[in-house]
Model the fold of this input.
Amino acid sequence: MSVSDVKALTFDVFGTVVDWRGSITKQGEALGKAKGVTTVDWAEFADRWRGGYRPSMDKVRKGELPWTNIDSLHRTILDELLEEFSITGLTEEEKVGFNKSWHRLDGWPDSTPGLTRLKTKFLISTLSNGNVALLTNMGKYAGLPWDCVLSAEIFHHYKRDPEVYKGAAEILGLPIEQVMMTAAHKDDLKAAKETGMKTAFVPRPGEHGPTRDIDTTNEDWIDVYASSFEELAEKLGC
Done:
């Protein structure tokens, strides 16, 4: 099947649809101001929080931890970082609220308009490692017009396990070749490609801040390359 046969687009969310780094930095700065914390580089804190996500998730993928959703993994990492950064005086309620910063992430400027265009022709769904509650709350917060919220939580596997991609196609009731994975991360797309999905690469060079080099190059195995969701919509005839 060719790209013209695609019926549904699934989307990686963190970094691809939403600006996790800018959003977590902003919410950290607000917390710091409210609690009188003046010595923390909140951009670094955001990077470290996100940096703990993959190793924690891999422990679940390898069976070293039982199934644990992303909210719980984020909380474990947060508790460690609060101690490391010497941030004290937070109540349990404040810790829970700050952990839910991941439910309140801002979309990239092209995300909602681009998704809205794509929705006119395709079924559009998340396919994220974020848990269902997180993704649902984030969608409402950021105004993301999803038709469906699919999460690794449903399959008790994390991307890049093939069960996630195959399970998404099954739930959508489509041959996997009629589903296109859309992401800013090539490792996600390569894993999707191996299961038979089509792929769309939409790089987000600002995801990790201004000083980190991000691979934004097109490659032959990528089915569609676009610099934004609006360009993706244009290339897919929306």
Observations:
- The mean pLDDT is 95.
- The longest strand covers residues 123-128.
